[in-house]
């Protein structure tokens, strides 16, 4: 069994402790146990609203504009069309005859990457309609070759 501690004699010059007052460690524990005044409900609500405005509302507004759900009332940063959209213009009343002025790489669809034909400058073509894909203007053309198998149609 443990024996009780012996009381040490007070050192000369040390302050005498009052027997009724608890030790300092007990006083610190008592102070920590008392409730402190924290943020009230209005402060928490305001902080959450500001956090939503900064983190939630701006990406939601910009995402809605990019997806075409709405238009924001800004003048400098509006998107004409989402970058991945594909819009076709009305077909031309009749094909327009033109001559290629540069090397044309023909694909099967607007924005396509697989080249099905390459036409050199000076080659006669007919433009049948236009489309816009990702902000780039495409023309659907037809061309004729010396034989039936060398002609075709595609987008450039």
Write the SSE topology:
Layout: H1 24-33, H2 41-67, E1 86-88, E2 96-99, E3 104-107, E4 115-119, E5 124-133, E6 136-143, E7 152-155
Antiparallel strand pairs: 1-5, 2-5, 3-4, 5-6, 6-7
What does this structure look like?
The protein contains two helices and seven strands, in the order ααβββββββ. The chain is an alpha+beta fold and 156 residues long. Strands 1, 2, 5, 6 and 7 form a five-stranded antiparallel beta sheet that branches. A hairpin with a 2-residue loop joins strand 5 and strand 6. The chain is elongated, with a radius of gyration of 40 Å. The termini are far apart.
The largest β sheet comes out as: 5 strands, antiparallel
Q: Fraction of residues in helices?
A: 10-25%
> Mean pLDDT, rounded to whole units?
76
| Cα separation of the termini | 98 Å
Gyration radius, in Å: 40 Å
Low-confidence runs of at least 5 consecutive residues: none
Count of alpha and pi helical runs: 2
Mass-distribution shape = elongated
Number of strands: 7
Binned strand content: 15-25%
Helix/strand-derived category reads alpha+beta
Q: Write the H/E string, N to C.
A: HHEEEEEEE
Core attributes:
2 helices, single chain, alpha+beta, 24% strand, two-stranded antiparallel sheet
Brief account:
With 156 residues, the protein is an alpha+beta fold. It has helices at 24-33, 41-67; strands spanning 86-88, 96-99, 104-107, 115-119, 124-133, 136-143, 152-155.
